[in-house]
Write a structure and sequence with these properties.
The complex is a heterodimer of chains A (about 475) and B (about 525). With about 475 residues, chain A is mostly helical. Chain A is built from 19 helices and 2 strands. The longest helix of chain A has about 30 residues. With about 525 residues, chain B is mainly alpha-helical. Chain B contains 22 helices and 2 strands. A two-stranded antiparallel ribbon of chain B has the order 1-2. In chain B, a hairpin with a 4-residue loop joins strand 1 and strand 2. Classes of the chains: A mainly alpha (about 475), B mainly alpha (about 525). At the A-B interface, helix 15, helix 16, helix 17 and helix 19 of A face helix 5, helix 6 and helix 7 of B.
């Protein structure tokens, strides 16, 4: 038996982002007892924690650094993802402040749950061990189950949480079973050791390993909501509080992608002929189902849920391509996507008022003339989601398509661009309502300053990443 | 930098207009017009200082944009794009004058118009594939908004159709662009999307060339629009407001033909030659089909829209003649169509403003009630038919002359399009302008007013100018066309090289001497 934890492999500095965030998350829990009804202090502490956690990700400068018996790594991928997670969690918290006040969500746990969830995401993106990945996924999922159902008196929210929990637990089972099979056949849970075992032909039973890989695809497929494991997405996205939906669409999804990317490109590259085909089918199915599903929707949140499914299809192309461009394009796409999503959901939050959320597309009729700037921002976000220049979404798509084309995946790219064309149809639908239809009722938006701030930041970033993406691309390419 | 300034001036105008208060409609219109007019006048300076003796890019400006990918902000203008550029600024100005009567959301309207102008101008000057694609897609949005907000009853359907059609084509072009990017990177080791560099260094086998060619073809053929891809055009034209139709016919369609000149021919000369019969037949079908469908239209705008399909068929035919006559004719016909059809849409818009209908059956005898209007309409209609002495004649004649050297049969069929054009235009004219003035609603129509004259007269001047003395216009294409022909000349791809001088007699002596001198000059 191997000795447990060789002392030199304990590296708390590597773990700094997790530790910082854990301290702050617990501090938030305690502070909430004293803060009373005013959550400003809680919010401030949470944001500070996220900021410090993001900064502490830079503590290691000679990358990559492996620690804890090679189960935890600090490399460029994980550092970039930690930035993304802390940023997106901070934006989600900012979006929540006014929404929660309006909707009467007064629990301080809300903020600490987001922080704990972020810890899980960081673990996911930094783990090189199946067990750690599983732990990360569980931390993230459990926080999300609670967050989705945090509006206890709202039926939709309850449905959302329950559905997410039941299906999520089921998917976790698949994931765990897949991990068990991979461990059983290769003798290790460490990604590098699995890769070595496969490379050296040290596999007990190839069929079982392949079965394990397929089960991993299923498990991860659920977590990133790729078709045909996406069924929960529309209901959960619709029922969860809007800031939570935005949060779910970005951070946890990116984290699951980071883990998926690591598992499939670092430990299973030798088996690529097997899983590549599976993932291609899943990617195509995801794009098509997401886009076709979105066309039918009349509820903006459901529409965006399906649209996010289709985006998962595009992002999967990066995993399939698995070349040097793919890593960078994955990072860039997630960042661009984060800003677009927070922008769109910020506007959706502002469209609602106490007691009425105004989530139907019809409610957007006439917005273009009543609030031109708001509508213009919404237009920019939607066109960016569709992948129209000069917005971030276009550069991101261009990047991912390049990665796939470099691998010669021409058919896949053609399917993807045709899907982009379909996606324009439903993004335009919202624009049609904003500019080309007469309002059925008076539009009363709640222009709350902090939400407006998030939208502004997102808009600037969406345009900035679209017109001058060079610095971020350079960063992502490292 | 001058070119960049000119291109982005309109969108600066759009931002300025956005800052004006909504109620000051007069100020909004004047500001928009001021920007458009300034842009047009300054763009004339381009034409004035343009060196017609070289095919090289002029007013070039290049700077690194996304250096990690080798994407540059590279703009420039040559003989192929110069007149299209000037025509864009010109028609933008005319359209803004023609939109003086718009009452609904005037500020947003002017913003969309100016933003559209920047998008279109950008397309014509981009010398980087990435940049080109950005502008190509960007101009979709304002046009979509213009059709969708200020259009007719079925405007939303038309706008979405317009957007999706173009998007599908251009997205496949995007795939081709990325593919070319990797091919060039592999072959030369240079990662770049710079069009001039790629044009010079791209070297792909014929079968891949064909695929790439088709991807670009689809994007541009939808825009032109060529025969089976034209169905979005009638809808878009009928629903678009007058100024939208003018821009659509005058500039947006030209982006398609321009694309062939800038991308398909120089990048894939061999594939282009292989596809000549394919393009020629589609063009001819478009010419005849467009003309026949025009014949039976009851709606004036629809008639003009289908006539565009027919006219653009000529342009495509000329482009794929790969000789001096055909290509010069195509480029000139590009301008002609913009002028004539633009004017037709303006005139149709004028009676629509008065009567709120465009059905031919509602009119009749208008020449008695609106004599000045009838004269303008007559001139424009005749130029659209291609009457000698007017612009349409020069262009169509050159195109037919050029393509005759390639295939007499196809040219003969295409020529029938000219005859059909006379039929549908004259018949329409007769039904609208002549006969009895029976419909009481037409009894009190006011004749063309000063503002409307301002929009139409410059176009009429151009009609005669190009018709009688096309040289200043033709001169600008010369060098660029000659250079392009050296690339796509069918003789380059034929095993034997004896056919070249068979048709030389058709070219005038002076013309030939000049050509030879130019060739020697290189």
């Amino acid at each position: 038996m191997e000795p447990i934890n060789a002392p030199e492999s304990i590296d708390l500095i590597s773990l700094a982002p997790v530790l910082v965030l854990s301290v702050f998350a617990m501090a938030v829990l305690v502070l909430d007892l004293f803060a009373g009804k005013n959550k400003a202090l809680v919010v401030f502490v949470s944001i500070t924690g996220l900021f410090l956690s993001g900064v502490s990700a830079l503590a290691k400068y000679k990358l990559p650094v492996y620690s804890f018996n090679d189960s935890y790594v600090v490399d460029h991928l994980s550092v970039f993802f930690i930035f993304l997670f802390t940023l997106s969690s901070a934006l989600a918290i900012l979006l929540s402040i006014e929404y929660n006040r309006r909707e009467g969500i007064r629990m301080g746990e809300y903020y600490s749950l987001i922080l704990f969830c972020t810890i899980g995401m960081i673990l996911l993106a930094s783990s090189t061990d199946l067990i750690m990945i599983f732990l990360g996924i569980e931390i993230v999922s459990i926080c999300l189950y609670v967050l989705a159902g945090i509006r206890r008196r709202d039926l939709k929210s309850n449905e959302s949480a329950l559905k997410y929990f039941l299906l999520g637990a089921f998917a976790t089972g698949f994931l765990l079973y897949g991990m068990a099979l991979v461990y059983g056949t290769t003798g290790s849970t460490n990604l590098m050791k699995i890769a070595t075992a496969i490379h050296e032909g040290n596999v007990n039973s190839m069929p079982l390993l392949l079965l394990g890989v397929v089960l991993l695809v299923v498990g991860f497929g659920f977590k990133v909501s790729s078709a045909p494991f996406h069924m929960w997405t529309p209901d959960v996205y619709q029922g969860a509080p809007t800031p939570v939906t935005a949060f779910m669409a970005v951070g946890p999804k990116a984290a699951a992608f980071a883990a998926l990317f690591r598992v499939f490109t670092q430990s299973l590259p030798e088996l690529d002929s097997t899983w590549e085909m599976v993932l291609i089918v899943v990617a195509v199915l995801t794009m098509v189902v997401g886009n076709l599903g979105a066309i039918m929707q009349t509820n903006v949140k459901r529409l965006l849920a399906f649209s996010s499914v289709s985006h998962v299809g595009y992002i999967l192309m990066a995993v399939i391509a698995k070349n040097s461009i793919a890593t960078a394009s994955l990072l860039f796409y997630m960042l661009a996507y984060a800003f677009m999503i927070f922008g769109v959901f910020g506007i959706i939050i502002m469209m609602g008022r106490e007691g009425e959320e105004n989530l139907e597309i019809e409610n957007y009729a006439g917005l273009g003339y009543k609030h031109p700037l708001l509508a213009l921002s919404m237009t920019a976000f939607l066109l960016s989601l569709g992948g129209l220049p000069p917005f971030a979404g276009f550069v991101a798509k261009f990047y991912i398509f390049s990665a796939a084309l470099k691998e010669g995946l021409l058919a896949l790219v053609v399917i993807a661009v045709l899907n982009s064309a379909i996606s324009f149809y439903y993004y335009l639908k919202i624009i049609v309502f904003m500019y080309m239809k007469e309002p059925q009722q008076e539009i009363r938006v709640s222009l709350s300053p902090i939400t407006l701030f998030v939208v502004t930041v997102s808009l600037i970033a969406t345009i900035q990443l679209g017109i001058f993406p060079d610095p971020i691309i350079a960063l992502a390419q490292n | 930098m001058f070119l960049t300034f000119l291109t982005f001036l309109p969108i600066v105008g759009a931002i300025v207009v956005a800052l004006l208060p909504k109620q000051q409609e007069g100020a909004i219109k004047q500001t928009a017009l001021a920007f458009a007019a300034a842009d047009f006048l300054l763009s004339l300076e381009l034409w004035r200082s343009f060196d017609v003796t070289t095919h090289k890019m002029q007013f070039e400006f290049s700077t690194s944009w996304i250096s990690s990918w080798g994407v540059n902000y590279h703009v420039g203008i040559d003989g192929i794009s110069l007149l299209l550029y000037v025509m864009t600024t010109f028609l933008t100005m005319i359209s803004i004058i023609a939109s003086w009567g718009v009452t609904k959301h005037i500020r947003e309207y002017m913003m969309a118009m100016l933003a559209l102008s920047t998008g279109m101008l950008g397309v014509f000057i981009s010398l980087d594939m990435f940049l080109f694609y950005v502008f190509w897609e960007f101009q979709l949005v304002p046009m979509y908004i213009i059709i969708g907000v200020w259009g007719g009853p079925r405007r939303i359907y038309a706008a979405v159709k317009f957007f999706l059609y173009t998007a599908v084509g251009s997205l496949l072009m995007l795939v081709a662009i990325i593919w070319i990017y990797f091919i060039v990177k592999e072959q030369t080791g240079v990662a770049t999307t710079d069009l001039l560099y790629i044009t010079e260094h791209l070297n792909v086998p014929l079968d891949i060339q064909k695929w790439l060619w088709m991807a670009f073809f689809l994007a541009f053929a939808i825009k032109v629009p060529m025969f089976p891809f034209h169905t979005w055009l009638p809808d878009a034209h009928v629903e678009a407001p007058t100024a939208g139709s003018v821009i659509l016919a005058g500039v947006l369609l030209k982006m398609g033909t321009y694309g062939f000149f800038r991308f398909n021919l120089p990048l894939f000369p061999h594939a282009s030659n292989e596809f000549v019969p394919f393009v020629a037949w589609l063009s001819v079908i478009g010419i005849v089909y467009g003309a026949l469908v025009s014949l039976v239209q009851e709606d004036l705008k629809k008639l003009v829209a289908y006539s565009s399909v027919s006219h653009l068929g000529f342009v495509m035919l000329g482009t794929f003649a790969f000789n001096h006559y055909g290509m010069q004719g195509a480029l000139l016909q590009n301008i002609n169509h913009g002028v004539s059809t633009g004017a037709l849409f303006l005139l149709v818009g004028m009676i629509y403003d008065r009567r709120h209908t465009r059905l031919i059956s509602e009119f009749g005898g208008l020449s008695k009630q609106m004599p000045k209007y009838a004269i303008c309409f007559m001139i424009v209609a005749l130029s659209s038919i291609g009457l000698p002495g007017m612009n349409g004649f020069v262009g169509e004649f050159l195109i037919l002359l050029g393509f005759f050297q390639v295939d007499g049969m196809i040219t003969a069929i295409a020529t029938s399009g000219v005859i059909f054009a006379a039929c549908y235009i004259l018949w329409m004219f007769q039904r609208v302008m002549f006969h009895e003035l029976k419909n009481p609603k037409n009894m009190n129509l006011k004749d063309i007013n000063a503002r409307e004259l301002i929009t139409v007269v410059p176009l009429i001047v151009l009609i005669f100018w190009i018709g009688l003395y096309p040289k200043p216009f033709m001169k600008t294409f010369d060098a660029s066309v000659s250079h392009l022909i050296t690339k796509v000349d069918p003789d380059n791809f034929r095993p034997s090289k004896h056919k070249k001088h068979e048709h030389a007699a058709l070219i005038g002596e002076a013309e030939l001497a000049k050509l030879q001198k130019e060739l020697q000059g290189k």
